[in-house]
Every structure is written in C-alpha cells, then in structure tokens.
Specification:
about 260 residues, mainly alpha
Amino acid sequence: MFSPITIVVILIIGAAAGVVTGIMGGSGVVVVVPALTLLLGFEAQVAIGTSLLINVIAALVTAFVYYRHGNLYVRPALWIALGSVFGAQAGSLFADMIPPLGMSNLFGLFLIPMGILLWVRGIRGAATLANTLTDTATPIMTTRNKLSALALGLFVGIMCGLFGAGGGVMILLILLFVLHYPMHLAVGTSSLIMAITAISGTVGYSIRDNIDIFTALIAGVATVLSAGLGARVANKVSEVTLGRSIGVILAALGIAMIATQYIS
C-alpha cells in the first residue's frame, strides 16, 4: 500500500506529465522517469515501463482534445506510426538486457542533449516554420517523404522502447520539418502517434513485468485532468518560452540522474 505522501507525489508526477503532453504534444515520460527514479526509488526499467503507460493516457486525452478542435491529420503520419511500433518493440527488448545502473546513466545522457536541442533549435525552429504555413495548409506526401517518415519513426520507436521516451518532441519535429505540418496540426497529430508508440512500448515492458500498474493508475487520474486542461490552453502559450524552459529542466534532470548514481 502507498502512504498518503507517496500518493500525493504520484499525483503531482502525473499532473506534470499531463501538462507537458497537453501543451507541447511532447512526451511527459521525460518528467515521469526521473521523478519516479529520484523521488520514489524506482528501478530504471520499472520507471520507464510505468511512465509509458502514463504517457498512453496523457497522449490519448491530448489527441482527443486536438481532434475536437480540428487539429489532427493522421493519414500521412501513419508512416511514422508504423516505424515507431516496430522500433518500440526492439527498444524494449534491448532495454531488458541493460543493467539498471546502465539504464539510468543512458537515460540521463539522453535527456541532456534533448534539453539542449529544445533550447537551441527545437521549439524555436518549429515555431518559425509553422509561421510560414497557413492554418489550412495540409502536407503533401511524396515517396521520399514516406520513406523518411518510416525510417525516422523507427528511430523514435527505438528511443521509446529503450529509454521510455514516447518521442513526442522528436515526432513533432518530424511532422514539421519532414512532412511540413502547421504547428497546431503537428502537436495534435504527434500526440496520437505518441500514444500508438507508447502502447507498443508498454506491451513490451508489460511482457517483461516491468510496469507498476497501481502507480500508473493513480498518476493517470491527475494526468487526464492536466492533459485536457493543457491542451485547451495550448494556443495561448508561447511555445518558444515553454520549450526553452523545458529544455533547461530536462538537461538538469539528466545531470541529476547521472550524479545520483555516484552519490548514493
């Protein structure tokens, strides 16, 4: 049984994951995994598997809200989803072969450049490109775009399965720079693809018994509420400012995860 304090911590973690996913279309996993590891002492594999299940909840709620606002265009993006499903299975298989210490360090190393990318290029570049497109623009698919989306989806899936990262930010960048989605359409669609990817990764971790179901369900209560709220106010938030803030937090969490392995 969880203590009242532990339940509150889990609810806060779930709420934070929902806000990140709802506003950015980015994976809340990058918040959940460090939090479960640092605050609640979860082993890396269990933290990642649990976070994937939480991410499924957050991404589905976000995708539904964006769908109701007409900001979801799935058909071209299914090439990313196809690659990500297979990649997530491969990543979860390899993750089970890596010792917990190695998983924590690898995830920490993954967070640092991801945070730097968000600060330097990610959201700023995405926002700039989105401003050059009309709100009614829809992406035109070519064979090259399809193959690029498939390959990049495979990479995102591997990252999802290996590190627990649902790949929301990476998917968002692919939709913007490869498939040329407008910003709001990209955020909504990336949420749905992220949900599909996270479901595949969750299945892989579940088979290996690396998911804490009760933690995910408790966090899911807060995630549903915060993801829905975040998605509704997304158009009122400066994605440049938010992206830079998240970038700093991700880099700091990555450094903290690595440091704790040598301090403890």
